[in-house]
């Protein structure tokens, strides 16, 4: 009878309908018989990086134990080969965690996306008992977030990211720049004001939410080449323990591409755009560009109008303080330039670039800091002569550092540096004499 019924059903019901009914039946049976529940934590969430994924990624290496079946290890300290390797979680590795009597099983998975630009798509699977589902949501995930925040605040290594246009993703490497606020050859008052501004920024989350502003801060570092703008960026990163995303604006093909690039950065990070005046025409003063174009058109009336596809000024401004600026928290945005006067005023106003820091030529205080760093001395009989010369000679901190690195003997170095300053002063006097004549 059963065989007869099955034959009749096979004749009367199409195969696709049979498969649909079978799948629904097995799904119902598995839900009724299985006592497990699975959470999926993907790397991306609603067009931005998933902060829960990032927290789990920081938390799980602390739960590696005897039950862990595989490990990913590596080292990024070539100068210290005896240092123990770092531990990480490889794909398909299972980690068992115990929390408040619950047994929780983690697995990292990876699949290849089939988009125009193929890339790895990672996600975590968390299995627990169905009866523990609410406790996991209410207690376990907040515990992971708190633990991960503590780990990230104390991390001993930072990363610097650069955007790979071909793969459409950020590539990272370990960031180990020795610059700190202690070693910077800046005016003490300026250095202190920057540090106080950073301290105020990281502790004012409630203030930014209360006034309805995105939790971010914009810095413009400007001044001649070699005055320490990049060193200040490194010092800020080391001070806050923030990763750096170094963006070349030319990497973005359009405004939408720029939004994708910027929203794929993480919270508690620095977005760095160096030499913004050279990176793209959109940053230049539009009034000056229009005047230059009119002059070119007068000289070449038959020239076709140029097209400049790519990022527009409005696209860049929209991320700085428009609707897209709210996609992320606790971010520092830093522009550097050698020519502030070339930038469009729209980039410079508060809310986009909140703090303008002029990195100037080496002063007496800057020289003393460099002498302490490179020579290990805080005072010398030749300091007065050198400081008097610095009042009439413009040299960058990079030039001073180069002179102080010539020898390990302070006497010889200071004598050579004094001669260097005298030579520069004589060149300036000669140039002034030629101009007067």
Present the secondary structure layout:
Layout: H1 2-12, H2 15-33, E1 36-42, E2 44-45, E3 48-49, H3 51-59, E4 72-74, E5 86-88, E6 94-99, E7 102-112, E8 120-129, H4 133-153, E9 158-164, E10 169-175, H5 188-202, H6 205-211, E11 216-222, H7 229-240, E12 243-246, H8 255-263, E13 269-273, H9 276-279, H10 286-299, H11 313-321, E14 331-337, H12 345-348, E15 355-358, H13 364-375, H14 383-390, H15 397-404, H16 410-436
Helix pairs in contact: 3-4, 13-15, 14-16
Question: What does the model show?
Answer:
This protein has 437 residues and is an alpha/beta fold. 43% of the residues lie in helices and 19% in strands. It is built from 16 helices and 15 strands. It has helices at residues 2-12, 15-33, 51-59, 133-153, 188-202, 205-211, 229-240, 255-263, 276-279, 286-299, 313-321, 345-348, 364-375, 383-390, 397-404, 410-436, and strands spanning 36-42, 44-45, 48-49, 72-74, 86-88, 94-99, 102-112, 120-129, 158-164, 169-175, 216-222, 243-246, 269-273, 331-337, 355-358. The strands form 4 sheets. A 7-stranded mixed sheet has the order 10-9-12-13-14-11-15. β6 (94-99) and β7 form a beta hairpin. The longest helix is centred in the last third of the chain and has 27 residues, at 410-436. It starts with a helix and ends with a helix. 22% of the residues are buried. Residues 299-308 have low confidence and may be disordered.
């Amino acid at each position: 009878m059963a065989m007869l019924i099955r034959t009749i059903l096979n004749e009367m019901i199409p195969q696709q309908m049979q498969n649909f009914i079978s799948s629904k039946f097995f799904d119902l049976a598995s839900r009724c018989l299985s006592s497990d529940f699975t959470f999926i934590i993907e790397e991306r969430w609603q067009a931005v990086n998933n902060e829960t994924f990032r927290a789990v990624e920081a938390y799980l290496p602390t739960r590696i134990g005897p039950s862990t079946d595989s490990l990913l290890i590596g080292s990024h300290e070539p100068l210290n080969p005896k240092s123990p390797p770092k531990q990480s979680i490889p794909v398909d590795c299972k980690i068992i965690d115990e929390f408040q009597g619950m047994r929780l099983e983690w697995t990292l998975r990876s699949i290849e996306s089939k988009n125009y630009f193929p890339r790895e798509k990672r996600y975590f699977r968390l299995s627990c008992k169905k009866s523990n589902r609410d406790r996991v949501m209410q207690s376990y995930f907040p515990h992971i977030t708190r633990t991960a925040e503590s780990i990230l605040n104390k991390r001993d290594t930072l990363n610097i990211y650069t955007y790979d246009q071909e793969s459409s993703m950020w590539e990272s490497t370990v960031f180990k720049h020795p610059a700190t606020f202690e070693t910077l050859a800046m005016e003490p008052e300026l250095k202190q004001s920057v540090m106080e501004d950073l301290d105020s920024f990281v502790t004012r989350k409630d203030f930014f939410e209360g006034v309805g502003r995105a939790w971010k801060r914009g810095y413009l570092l400007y001044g001649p080449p070699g005055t320490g703008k990049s060193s200040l960026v490194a010092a800020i990163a080391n001070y806050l323990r923030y990763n750096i995303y170094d963006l070349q604006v030319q990497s973005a093909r359009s405004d939408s591409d720029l939004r994708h690039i910027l929203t794929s950065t993480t919270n508690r990070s620095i977005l760095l755009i160096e030499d913004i005046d050279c990176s793209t025409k959109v940053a230049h003063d539009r009034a000056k560009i229009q005047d230059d174009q009119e002059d070119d058109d007068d000289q070449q009336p038959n020239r076709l109008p140029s097209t400049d596809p790519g990022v527009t000024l409005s696209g860049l401004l929209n991320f700085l303080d428009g609707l897209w600026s709210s996609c992320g928290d606790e971010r520092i945005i830093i522009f550097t330039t050698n020519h502030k006067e070339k930038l469009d005023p729209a980039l410079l106003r508060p809310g986009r670039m909140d703090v303008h820091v002029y990195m100037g030529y080496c002063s007496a205080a800057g020289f003393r800091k460099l002498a302490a760093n490179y020579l290990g001395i805080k005072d010398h009989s030749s300091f007065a002569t050198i400081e008097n010369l610095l009042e009439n000679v413009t040299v960058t901190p990079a030039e001073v550092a180069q002179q102080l690195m010539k020898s390990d003997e302070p006497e010889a170095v200071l004598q050579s540096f004094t001669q260097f300053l005298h030579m520069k002063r004589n060149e300036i006097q000669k140039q002034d004499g030629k101009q007067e004549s």
